[in-house]
Design a protein that fits this description.
elongated; 13 strands; mainly beta; 9% helix; 2 helices
């Protein structure tokens, strides 16, 4: 029984954290210096961008009974039925509205056996998990010159996933459905600094709480600008600390990312 339940915990961990593969998009392209050598005031009107990306992340954490959880990217991909990630942003002057969206569909079936007394009993687990994550909020530019832009941000990070588990132990059948969710408020900083040519560095960090005791993230990356398209890659770390009454006491996801951003 315990191997089956341990496998169940690991799959739940995979769905919960992978869905949390959220990235706050970097600020829009830095403005050009005016002819008089001064930085012009922010342009009015809305500017939009959308990004799609992949995150080669590994998962880790600990359940409330002290068991450690470690899931590699390969393990996640083996059980992946469908998944998608996107970032949307709208800017007007110093203000930015943003939303990160991720959908994930995981499924796995496992046969096994356990020994009860002198008997060996067959086991079967069928787990299906669908998850959705969004981080939505607003940012305001507090530092802006030809080379660097820095914004403060505030928003809400929301996780929701549905699980449908069928467990067979000998002649006993059990089916369990659950629909847990986590909502946390977050505040933080994000910025972008021009490097050589069309290269730039972007970075962000935030911290928050709510349903979690504490959640925080940090990311740093490099990007290259084309006229209406950027390529970006970097590394990101994301963590949740939960209270002792939860099935999971902490969740962690970290790893490299790469993607494309379209400006229009």
């Amino acid at each position: 029984m315990r191997p089956a339940m341990t496998h169940l915990k690991r799959l739940l961990m995979s769905a919960a954290i992978t869905c949390m593969a959220l990235r706050l998009d970097a600020p829009a392209h830095a403005q050009d210096v005016g002819a008089d050598g001064t930085f012009p005031p922010p342009e009015t009107g809305w500017e939009f961008d959308a990004a799609v990306y992949l995150w080669g992340a590994g998962l880790g954490g600990e359940v409330s009974d002290g068991d450690a959880l470690e899931l590699s990217l390969g393990t996640i991909l083996e059980n992946l039925n469908a998944g998608g990630m996107a970032t949307l942003a709208a800017r007007n002057g110093k203000w930015t509205l943003f939303s990160d969206l991720i959908y994930l569909n995981l499924g796995d079936k496992k046969d096994g056996s356990v020994t009860i007394g002198r008997d060996t009993v067959d086991t079967y687990v069928d787990l299906q998990v669908k998850g959705f994550i969004t981080t939505t909020g607003i940012g305001y530019s507090i530092f802006d010159n030809p080379d660097t832009e820095l914004s403060v941000l505030g928003g809400v990070r929301f996780l929701k996933f549905k699980t449908d588990t069928k467990l067979e132990l000998g002649g006993l059948d059990r089916r369990v459905k659950s629909d847990p969710s986590l909502t946390d408020g977050v505040i933080g900083l994000r910025g972008q600094s021009n490097l050589s040519g069309n290269w730039y560095a972007d970075y962000c960090a935030d911290v928050g709480t709510g349903d979690s005791d504490l959640t925080w993230q940090a990311a740093v990356g490099l990007g290259y600008r084309f006229e209406k398209l950027d390529i970006a890659f970097g590394h990101r770390y994301l963590r949740w600390d939960l209270d002792s009454s939860s099935d999971l006491s902490d969740l962690t996801i970290k790893g490299p990312y790469a993607g494309l951003k379209f400006v229009f």
